[in-house]
Amino acid sequence: MAKRIDVSGLHAYYGPVHAIEDISMTIEPRSVTAFIGPSGCGKSTFLRTLNRMHEVVPGARVEGKVMLDDQDLYDPSVDPVAVRRLVGMVFQRPNPFPTMSIYDNVAAGLKLNGVRRKSQLDDIVEESLRGANLWNEVKDRLGKPGAGLSGGQQQRLCIARAIAVQPQVLLMDEPCSALDPISTLAIEDLIAKLKTQYTIVIVTHNMQQAARVSDRTAFFNIAGTGKPGRLIELDETSKIFTNPDQKATEDYITGRFG
Length: 258
Ligand SMILES: Nc1ncnc2c1ncn2[C@@H]1O[C@H](COP(=O)(O)OP(=O)(O)OP(=O)(O)O)[C@@H](O)[C@H]1O
Known about the structure:
It is found in: Cell inner membrane. Part of the ABC transporter complex PstSACB involved in phosphate import. Responsible for energy coupling to the transport system. The protein has helices spanning 43-49, 80-86, 102-112, 118-131, 135-138, 151-164, 181-194, 207-213, 237-242, 247-253; strands at 5-14, 17-27, 32-36, 60-68, 71-72, 87-90, 169-173, 199-203, 216-222, 229-236. The chain is an alpha/beta fold. The strands form two sheets. The protein has a six-stranded mixed beta sheet, sandwiched between helices. It has a four-stranded antiparallel beta sheet with strand order 2-1-4-5, with helices on one face. The chain is globular. Residues 14, 17, 19, 37, 39-45, 57, 229 line the site of adenosine-5'-triphosphate.
């Protein structure tokens, strides 16, 4: 199911603002790639270009190429809604549909995709909640609202909702920043488990987290206020954190700036 992402010469704009400049990278399947870098360097913007969410902002546009295996995501014939089905996203704050039951939160995307048979929905809801390490905690209250779960449970519910539609890639934008340390560990364990099946990209401000969960790390930076963000270096996480090629990477990971 997991696919490789190949980005070349990618620029993103918000109206006249040039937010990220000339980014090229390969994101490997069945592994976790972390994006780190100072605030405003374009990590979230770049993440959202990978499932065509960037263009949802009025006036925003993208130049360059994003390939998902051999499919060009920005080809004019490609439907952005179909892209978002292939490339799922989990956000910073858990955002379950608040009035919907736990069951319906997971089933919503499946129903939109035309799955109607109750037994099939039941199976996929259970499988997705198990996949998100949440089944045992919620199996006796599937009809209760998603909003009644703890923050960490809600984030795992959002991950169950994302994987229910069987994406190829999971993008996570600071998925633990609103969570306590125990819930954070639960999500990190889950990421380690999910990477055997998915291509995972995670934006994180927490360098220990990047070091714990990722196989490869990309460091982004900006030359100054108003300048576009750039990719400085992408390599094995162990190398980035012990012996990076670029001085700017070393300064950042040793806490000299950012
Ligand atoms: N909706 C928007 N409209 C205009 N400019 C935006 C918008 N969203 C982001 N930007 C600008 O694009 C640049 C990159 O922002 P982005 O949020 O991608 O950075 P980031 O590295 O994810 O930051 P942080 O770590 O603080 O979340 C910033 O200069 C930001 O002000």
